[in-house]
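Weekly structure sync - notes
Attendees: PM, LS, DV (DV joined late)
Agenda: review two folding runs queued last week.

Item 1: First target. Sequence and structure tokens pasted below for the record.
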Amino acid sequence: MSLSFDFVQPEPVATDRVTLFADVILPLPLPKLYTYRVPYELNDHVVIGGRVIVQFGAKKTLSCIVAAVHETPPKEYQAKYILEFIDDAPVVTQPQLKLFRWIADYYMCTLGEVINAALPAALKLSSESRIQLHPAFGVEENPYPLSEQEERIVETLRGGEEGKSLTFTEVGDLLGISSFHRVIKSLMQKEVIFLFEHLSDKYSPKVVKKVRLAHTFVAEAALEELFQRLATKPKQLDVLMRFLQKVPIYQNEHANHQGIEKAYLSSAPHLSASAVNTLIKNGILEQFDVIVSRFPLDHTAETRLNFTLSEAQSTAHADILRQFAEKDIVLLHGVTGAGKTEIYIDLIQQAMQGGGQVLYLLPEIALTAQIVTRLMRVFGSRLGVYHSKFSDNERVEVWNGVLSGRFQVVVGVRSAVFLPFDNLALVIVDEEHESSYKQYDPAPRYNAREVALMMANFQGAKTLLGSATPAVETYYQTRAGRYGLVELTKRYGEAGLPEIELVDTRKSREQKTMLNHFTPELMQEMERKLGAQEQVILFQNRRGYSPFINCLDCGWIPKCKSCAVSLSYHKHVHELRCHYCGYHERMPVECPACGSRNLKTVGFGTEKLEDDLKIMLPEAQVQRMDLDTTRAKNAYQQIISDFEQQKTNILVGTQMVTKGLDFANVSLVGIINADSIIHYPDFRAHERAYQMFVQVSGRAGRKGKKGKVIIQTGDPLQVIFDKVIRNDYLEFYEYEITQRREHGYPPFMRVIRLTVKHVDQLLAEQAAILLTQELVDRLGREAVLGPEAPYIFRIRNFYLQEITIKLSREHTVLKSAKNDIRDSINIVKDQKEFKQARIAADVDPM
């Protein structure tokens, strides 16, 4: 007997099979990119700028951005496979990746930190721990007894469908306890359960339920028969009639196919939702879902502007275009109320007509709220709005709208620089001097103005910077010939610059004529303006009711438990609050130190001013605009709308009221405590004070009315007031630039501030001393200042030490110095005793 075998010819070995690797940006503060292997069958699906899911570490599973694709495996470790591809098209564009790399390099942070800040949260996948029965559990007898709580978890997991899992939250609810992690840990040790990460994409589009008439009843005869059927059912008949009034099915059958929102049918008082649902249940109406925009921006845009530029505006407009032919960056220096916004709108329209994209940056959400209405009337549904008060889903919608080309122009605050533009023609940075453009914490600690300039440079776009009080560094660039300069020296229309009056608060206190915190001059002027049906803005650069409370018997002052500051009193909620970490506690009835009830508030904030005004001017409607009153999503819009419609007579606020708001009926501005702004330990203190005084003064006297500004100060002879009164920016600039040159500050030097943080004060000081020594060895003693504790030396339980580094502006010097700084930081962090120290670099601190 012989055996025979069928010989099978082996498949030829493919010689062109390529193994791809992807460098990904993990949303973690890692100094390098991490490399993963692309599954061969997905080689054609990997896209640079797309999101993928990877495993990082033993258990962590997260999404990241593909930065590069190549064929070189990593030498230091075995590359893991990418687990899943989320996108088949980039959500981050190539121009964005180039910009993100520049941000990471310039601001001394990691690409992961940039991605974390740039991407809306809903584009980043959330990872939630879940538990599931171990596959081996129950096959063999478990040698470990289970507690009652453990048994309950196992029964729940067994009782569901195969593969049932529970989130940590569900475990807590099941056991009725908050401390359930020890139970989970015990079950894991007994190999009863295992943990895994459940990834879910948080973004979901907005869905609206709509209804239409079933096709069966569209014919006239069928509809008449339907009316007869519903003759005894008046509620359903009323709903049907309301539908037909809205949808002319005989004139336009397509209108029925599009349908109307279900909510519309039950919105009238005499109609019921149950009648609508009955019609759907009986097949008379059909319900369907439609994905809609979250933005009420789908209005038909006007084909041309609804205003005419004045002669001065037209001249400035032409001058900007002329200078754009020679320079990429132009500064529009116009006095407050000069009409810069109209020039911006005209330039935006021209850029859009050429097919380009436009980014219009504003420093505050309050400004965004006021100007969006004006822009919508011009640009309609082509306009996108982007700021932090939007929900995650709303921000994703704008992000996708820029990617798809739906939004050709975007108005937004500093985070809008991260949007996926790839065809920018024009960038406008309004109020370019504002410190609100600077991100302080966490990293990246970027300045949106500088990022916008670089983004425009990368994409070949023009940048227009606008301000009545330009940053000293910006104006210096115009003097050096690097930026163009266009000036608007007159207000729009017939309005003149306001009259500014200094009032000496020391004299008023000596004469005992102060009315709470108001001088008699300011009170009289407020009463006169209110009598003339005109409006008032009061500026106080401190929120809350009072900065602190004090026991008059023993001197006790309540302090924050985590920060080296006193707690501020907020009367509205009857709480003491820390403005640095958010800690709060109830206002004490008696002194905890000595038991005295003799507690007194000291100083005043916006809340105190609002309270006093309501008592002193009971006929006036007073509103407050600060961080406390604008936390809600639409609070800005409501406060501004009420003031525009003159429902509010007096608006009391912090810096929010100083920034470009335009109210036609405001004829008086009061600056309550000017001295607190001037006397601040910072080289920019005088610049900030000048800018703030001029900007808030500019809110007075619009639309042909002569405004008035009253500045309350204990030192009227301060040199800065003379420059504010004469509106002499050039003289202020010459004085300030001389001081900067003499003492070696920007724009003549670059400044980098390093902050060392540690929960132990001594270790914070020792780490800072070691870091300073390392820096001095590399950069020289003259370049390194410090270390020293800042004025607020403890925040959120961390003790702080600061080191200031001054460097030449030359690119090669700066690049080399940053490498030296990184090396010095690494040396300190490598020391065992300083492992827990945090060291943050702030390039170009404000």
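Item 2: Second target, run right after the first with the same settings.
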Amino acid sequence: MRETSNLFSKQNSQQPKQFRGDDKKVMKKSLLAFVLAFSLVLSVAVPAFAATPSDVVGKPVQSAVEELTALGVINGYEDGTFKPGNDITRAELAKVIVIATGNASNADLLKSQKPVFKDVKANQWYTGYINVAEAKKLVQGYNGKFRPSDKVKFEEVVAVLVRALGYKDANLSGTWPNNVLLQANSPEINMFKGVDITKGESANRGVVAQLVSNTLNASLVKYDADKNLVLVTPAKTLIELIGAVTQGVFENVALESNNTQIRVGGALHTVAADFVVTGGKKLSELAGRTVSVIKVGGKVVAVTDKQDAAKVATGKNKVAAVDLTDAGTITLDGVTTPFQIAPGFFFIKNGALVTVAADKDIAAGASVTLILNAAGNEVSAVVVTEYTATNKLFVSYDAKTSYRAAQITHDGGVVSVDENTVIKLDGKVAAATDLKKDDVIDVVASGSKAVSIEAVRKTATGKVASTSTTGADKSYVVNGTSYVEVSALNLVIGTEYNFVLNKDSKIVKATVVTAAEGAPAYGVITKVVNNVAVLDGVQVNTKDKVEYFSLKTNTKEVAYLVDTYAAADSDADFIAKFSYDSAGKVTGITVPQALTEAGSADVTEISASAIKTTSVYNVTSNTVVVNALDLANNNVSVGALSNITKNDKVVIVNDSINASFIVLTKDNEASSELAKVSGLFVSKTESATASGTTYSVKLNVAGEEKTYVVSNAAFGTAVTAKQLVTLTDSAPATLGYETLATVATAADQVSDVNTTTKTFKIATVDHVATANTQYYVIDKDGNVSVAGFDAVSFAATGTAGTHYTVAFTTTGTVVGGGFAEVGAIVITQLP
């Protein structure tokens, strides 16, 4: 387990992962000291491949965030995100640069020292970092103040990084900040790669991460006695202040030595338990390429692709099947000059490193990537990709078990997959669990293991207008477009089909379109009148008159039935299946489900592919959305999936798996109930305009100050600063929250704490903390800190009423065997 430091922890904001320390003596002295100590370092157990924050995956800043996380310079939030767009403060920047320059231990030493800045207190979470940064002349103040809570400007970040490399502002050409900006943009540093921001703008977390990452490999400098700029001796880069960097050719396709080592530049390197391959790449994609290996404590924490793109050539093998040898040649399509093979070249085929000369064969037309040497005149690595299965239809994914690897089944067989399998869906990085039935996949496998899977999800629907055959290719014209079949389908002209297409828009599968058991045969009954006299020819008969909205014609219709639908007027408002004779006349009705608000279910989740109420149902191309909001006035229409949002009420007619119809009975979008809010009271505001008066309260919610509109009655509730309150919306159709309830502190004992299950007792009552629980600590001086479950653990070591008081709210949810879920908990330290 490796300890990492989060450099973006701040007060009064949503907290990234909490920091923990090991100073047990300090922890025993006071709860405040405990919380401060625990705001330094977080120990996190992670899998063999460290997780990348979900909101930077596929973004330009991904590699930078991954590298800095691996180095312990930066972390994300507890919810698995990084929030690259969030601002950071000057205090946080001080922490960034102190850790990045290898001075974290010095920050601990100086955290209790009186700062030179008059607006920085001793023993704050940031005090030691600001003291070190000032002592190292990395940061500057303003008229004796540091302004720790101010947002950081772009040029301030640049200046701090330039100083970290050894440059001095006074020795640079020009006036500040142009002098540091020009130096940062020099070839020696090249700090602005991938950064789009201008002078004067605030720098967000993503920008800071990219700037720091860009600077890590810049050389450290110093000034000699004559103030001439020289490199430090021995030569060193910024990153070497906190770790070690090795560059070389990656000679594996996966981990070796029992999944503990990689081979780079001819040497083995042991990887850390939570090492990361940056940029969303897999180890198998790096074979033969130049990579950068970052080590901390002698173990690899990050591997980054550093291959010069100018030294890479890709294409198809132009000539017939060829066996490569040292000093041989290879020619790619579109290139007339053969590439010379270097002695001892690497040969990787379908993800496997091939060492036997006789097996270094390439089929004609195979996809080839050539990695050239530094001079660019010889091929140092040949990466061959030959599909082992193409145009296969995905069937299922089976997760890993104790006796076998995870598997993907397609209509041609089974292949195993693991964390090193490259999976792409419609050209984007994906997981095996993202694939769906009938996705068309192309597989590259080495033996039974899939090295890569390329999937596409492409469909079309229409009638076959004509066919044509050119050579071996038979094509079908559908909706004016010609589609070539992959294999013989024998489609019929004039018949409508659903087509599954591959990446080249060729037909892999075609199924005849049959009317959904829904659209042509269903309708919504809006009114029923019994015993209506109807003239049939010359005879008057008594029938039931059924008025309905036909989903066959999308119009209002009337049917007269005899003895087939015995219902009263009150039994209207059903979605029903209609039977027709050959003339199209309604002959009978089967009623599957009533359409009432009481019989409806709340939508909890909805997407283009699924809807969830009490159960989850697939949304398919045959799903029909029915708008029944005005059913009371006998008005029904066909709607769209976009009309339905979370918290709406619907009736779902289904076949146990797929939603045939989604009937919207109540739209709660305009008057949805506001979610209950708990937080620490900050202030109230009353705003009067010509149109009326608006009341609002500001709360500290999980460290971030948020403003909520409330009713006049809620606004009038007596409440004190830093008191825990809850806001409840009791009248969703009105503006804001109607109820503001205060939670008083009490001398209730916290006991029986279980850090594994996060359960504990408050005054002998069982409670549990979940991922949604908020933790606050108020110290003896009234300072508020956002904490973690450790604060609960520490409180239990003291005596309630003597060492602390506690206030808390519960969500109303009971977990497990009777544990009340805690929404927020405030532990106040007593003098």
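Discussion on item 2: The first helix runs from residue 24 to 29.
Action: LS to circulate a short write-up before next sync.
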